Amino acid sequence: MLSGKSILIGITGGIAAYKICELIRMFKRANADVKIVCTPNALNFVTKLTLQSLSQNKVAVREFETENFKPEHISYADGADIMIIAPATANTVSKIANGYCDNLLTSIVCAFNKPVIIAPAMNRNMWENPVIKENIAKLYKLGYEILEPEKGFLACGYSGQGRLCRTDKIFEKAVEILHSSDMLKGKKVIVTAGGTIEDIDPVRYISNYSSGKMGIALADAAKSMGAYVVLISTVDVDKSYNVIKVKSALDMQSAVKSEITDADFVIMAAAVADYRVKNYSRQKIKKTSSDEITLELVKNPDILQEICSMKNNSVCVAGFCAENENLTENAKAKIVQKGCDFIIANDISRTDIGFSSDYNEVTIIDKDGNVTKLEKTDKNRLAKQILEVIYGRNCSDNRELCTSQSC
Ligand code: CTP
Q1: In the chain, which residues fall in CATH 3.40.50.1950?
Q2: Which one of 176, 190, 208, 311 is separated from 18 by 20 to 30 angstroms, measured CA to CA?
Q3: CATH topology for the 6-180 domain
Q4: Is 374 touching ligand 1 by the criterion CB < 6 Å?
């Protein structure tokens, strides 16, 4: 099941460390290559020999014990497809959340740019400590996959939430992530993000409150699923994929049109201004004695509609729409109006989701009228779910377009 995949398991100093022996066996049975890194304290609970024998690899504990020219933490980070930290003590959770690199395990996590699963285990009072809660929330926000501890009888004699989650759950989550990380391999995904900026004069502009967060989360998710990503954004971001910085709707239109020729998916998450000023003033507009001023606006091109009218069947295009009533009906009308394959509808009457929030909830409608509702969650998680729905539907509708093994 996992042949060709390399799993890096980080074990920290908690009693649940003994349970990781079974997890290693699960990955070995699935034909994965398993490497182990331990904090020095982890070896108080489980021996190096046990872990070495089960993983059939040397167990790393300290930095600077390498014969390799590459630093040890970088070799480990580069060599694995996924990292699992289990059990993750309160100490290690807090260090990761705050960027500490004071041992080999935390240094590897800091250098690791692929999926990381963190399975904390600790005493109930420690789990409920507000500082730990804040650090866990930070890890969620940073995109780590957290498998929260379960309730039950704890080794310290307490009852409550704190036990390491079941090891088969950790195994299943890793398999799910590894499979989804190949889902968009070989596909080019274009995502637009942010609100366009329409200049009035050298110091003034018309724009909107879009933060670009949803578009950026979609681009990140596509990248983590193996796609070649082009993010066309009005927001400055520093990413490992191709980012084209644009300003106005016209800039965005030309970037999308030049990138779309070999694209497989285009997701228009940007909030494109419908109008721009007719006559941009090269000089700063001066205040006059008049109490009123009139700005004449002209319509911007509807990029989504334009690309949909030109596109062939090999590219799948999704647009967003913002509604405050009759979400599904309006979204169904919009998909017809724009001619796209999917519309992702947001309810903008809600203040807890959308525009500048880190959370969102969407309804996805495809061109056949199928409706998929995705529950409220953080934008990173939601982005993955959106891509899974779009990719899955696109594949089932257009089998001949699918070259991926996972179709
Ligand atoms: N869009 C675009 N070009 C425009 C305007 C919008 O490509 N000039 C895209 C957006 O990126 C988004 C979708 O079209 O994917 C939104 O369509 P729009 O018609 O603006 O819908 P709403 O935002 O729902 O607003 P309204 O219909 O009220 O204008």
Answers
A1: 6-180
A2: 176
A3: Rossmann fold (3.40.50)
A4: no
What is the rounded CA–CA span in Å between residue 183 and residue 198?
37
- Residue 396 has what pLDDT? 54
Query: CA angle at residue 290 from 285 to 291, to 5 degrees?
Result: 100
With vertex at residue 310, the alpha carbon angle to CA 314 and CA 313, rounded to the nearest 5 degrees, is 20
Could you read off the pLDDT of 238-289 as tens digits, one per residue?
998 999 999 999 999 999 999 999 999 999 999 999 999 999 999 999 999 9
For ligand 1, the distance from its centroid to the CA atom of residue 274, given in whole angstroms, is 7
Q: Which amino acid is at 140?
A: Y
Rounded to whole angstroms, how far apart are CA atoms 241 and 181? 15
Who's near 22: CB < 8 A, 6+ residues apart? 167
CATH homologous superfamily of 188-396: CoaB-like (3.40.50.10300)
Assess whether pLDDT exceeds 90 at residue 403: no
How many angstroms does the Cα of residue 343 sit away from the middle of ligand 1?
10
| Ligand 1: nearest atom to the Cα of 322 | 24
Pocket-testing residue among 192, 260, 302, 329, ligand 1, by greatest number of atoms within 8 A of Cβ? 302
Radius of gyration of the chain (CA): 25
Q: Which of 210, 304, 330 to mutate to test the pocket of ligand 1 (most atoms within 8 A of CB)?
A: 304
Over residues 5-63, the pLDDT tens digits come to 999 999 999 999 999 999 999 999 999 999 999 999 999 999 999 999 999 999 999 88
Q: Annotate 22-81 with DSSP letters as a single string.
A: HHHHHHHHTT-EEEEEE-GGGGGTS-HHHHHHHHTSPEE-STT---SSS-HHHHHHHH-S
Q: For residues 11 and 39, is the Cβ–Cβ distance under 8 A?
A: yes
* pLDDT band at residue 404 using 50, 70 and 90 as cut-offs: very low
**Which part of the chain has CATH 3.40.50.10300?**
188-396
One-letter amino acid of 356: S
The DSSP bridge pattern shows strands 242-245 and 228-233 to be parallel
* Catalytic residue ranges: 156
pLDDT in tens, 375-399: 988 888 899 999 999 998 775 554 3
In the sheet where 188-193 sits, what is the strand order? 242-245, 228-233, 188-193, 265-268, 316-323, 342-347, 359-366, 371-378
Q: How far is the CA of 143 from the centre of ligand 1 (A)?
A: 28
Span from the CA of 29 to the centroid of ligand 1 (angstroms) = 50
